[in-house]
Design brief:
With 202 residues, the protein is an all-alpha fold. The chain has 10 helices and no strands.
């Protein structure tokens, strides 16, 4: 007599919420960095098993890239949103102020994922470092172009150096991320932002 037992389904459970799982993965990468975040850590945080992770996201490397892009589109999109301001000065101020608030928001790990996730990576993860560096460099280049446009429009003194200014404020933002990871609070980072804005050429 044939058995009427239905085989258990494999792979993702019916309750699998891909977006929620991705958010949990993002938090783990943000908190621990790429290399220190294991598949076991990810699956535990995401509430799925390894086959489900591979079926939904491919592998750890692909999952990381998707998590980074999700971060950039959402909570970590400080740069792109700031660059929508009408002037470079306004863009820099919004970037610094929102970073000060975001890097110290207690609802998620401190600092910036794009700054901290590749810290202490080995040569095996050079592509991870390159991916995050490209995002940082893209924001810096876009800021440089915005500053250059203001210089051409006469909104900045002729002595202003767009490349140096963009590099300076990129360094401030990255330093604010490190400070947040070291325990600086919103007021501390906002004070750094105020000091950095005082260096804007007038």
């Amino acid at each position: 007599m044939a058995s009427s037992t239905t085989p258990a389904p494999r792979g993702r459970p019916r309750s699998f919420d891909r977006d929620a799982a991705l958010q949990h993965a993002l938090t783990e990468f943000w908190r621990h960095g790429y290399e220190a975040t294991s598949i076991a850590t990810l699956t535990r945080a995401m509430g799925i098993n390894p086959p489900s992770l591979y079926a939904a996201f491919g592998d750890k490397r692909k999952l990381f890239s998707e998590a980074v892009q999700h971060y950039v589109r959402t909570v970590g999109g400080y740069g792109s949103r700031a660059l929508q301001q009408p002037t470079a000065r306004a863009a820099v101020e919004q970037l610094l102020r929102t970073a000060a608030a975001g890097y110290t928001d207690p609802s998620h790990p401190p600092g910036c994922l794009v700054v901290r996730a590749a810290t202490n990576c080995t040569d095996a993860s050079a592509d991870v470092e390159a991916e995050l560096r490209a995002i940082r460099e893209g924001t810096k280049h876009a800021l440089e172009e915005k500053i250059r446009a203001d210089l051409t429009a006469g909104l900045l003194p002729a002595t202003a150096d767009p490349r140096a200014l963009a590099a300076f404020y990129a360094a401030v933002v990255q330093g604010m991320s490190v400070q947040a990871c070291d325990g600086a609070d919103h007021a501390d980072l906002d004070a750094i932002a105020t000091t950095a804005l005082a260096a804007w050429p007038s």
